[in-house]
Amino acid sequence: MQNETRKILESVQNGSISVDEALVRLKTQPFDDLGYAKVDFHREVRQGVPEVIYGAGKTPEQIVGIMGDMRKNGQNQILITRLSREAADVVLKSHPITYHEQAEIGYYGSIPAPDGIGTVVVATGGTSDIPVAQEAALTAEFFGNRVVRLFDVGVAGLHRLLAYREEIMSASVIIAIAGMEGALASVIGGLVDCPVIAVPTSVGYGASFGGLSALLSMLNSCASGVSVVNIDNGFGAGYLANRINHMEAKK
């Protein structure tokens, strides 16, 4: 893989191919096949963000192997989501990761200084939503965003949200995370002029159907500018918030 990249760069230097053609080739270079995983080293070239390891369903040994391949090929930052404490303990024997148990996130490398165009606000309806919120917040921070956390500001006490009016009004993008009936996203969506990413959580009593009620409420929001990710998908919300917060006008 590294040899192929080197050949392409040499071809640009000697003038046999153009820079644009080299970029196309780099974007379509093959992946490394480990048998149990096909590691994509050029996702960052195509999408601006390197491949993220989804830890759930993988054995600790598989995660160790994927990380080893990534590091061998020069990836200096690696994010692992849905990583259990037990798996993290095994990974730590081979790779120096930082682990956040509440968010079930591990990462190799350091969190960079924020370079997004503004601030990502992560707000939760209740304290029980914080694990999903931390997954979203840490994902956004890992990709270079300034994050403000507003926990337990749900509609059962609306004055708690309004106490942070300045933070929500000045945000570039807001992630609204709630279970129960999921009303927080609609309330925030009706107040602000920035994109709102709604995350339904599986928090709630029986009729919440494991987050389905919140999901349907958010999908049916009458507030404009609200998009919705899947139940408990803090990572997806943090990833999308990062893209929004790094958008520049395309010429």
Walkthrough of the structure:
The chain is α/β, with parallel strands linked by helices and 251 residues long. It has eleven helices and eleven strands. The strands form three sheets. Strands 8-7-9-10-11 form a five-stranded parallel beta sheet. Strand 9 (173-178), helix 9 (184-189) and strand 10 (196-200) form a beta-alpha-beta unit. Helix 1 (2-13) runs antiparallel to helix 2. The radius of gyration is 20 Å and the shape is globular. The mean pLDDT is 88.
Question: Which helices and strands, and how do they pair?
Answer:
Elements: H1 2-13, H2 19-27, E1 32-33, E2 38-39, H3 43-47, E3 53-54, H4 60-72, E4 78-81, H5 85-91, E5 98-100, E6 105-108, E7 119-124, H6 130-142, E8 146-150, H7 158-162, H8 165-169, E9 173-178, H9 184-189, E10 196-200, H10 212-219, E11 226-228, H11 234-245
Keywords, separated by commas or semicolons:
251 residues; single chain
Query: How far do the termini sit from each other?
Result: 32 Å
Low-confidence stretches: none
Overall pLDDT metric: 88
**H-E order:** HHEEHEHEHEEEHEHHEHEHEH
| CA radius of gyration | 20 Å
- The global form is globular
Major sheet: 5 strands, parallel
* Number of helical regions: 11
Give, in spatial order, the strands making up the sheet with the most strands.
8-7-9-10-11
Q: Percentage of helical residues?
A: 25-40%
Structural category is alpha/beta
Task: Provide the β-strand percentage band.
Answer: 15-25%
The number of distinct β-strands equals 11
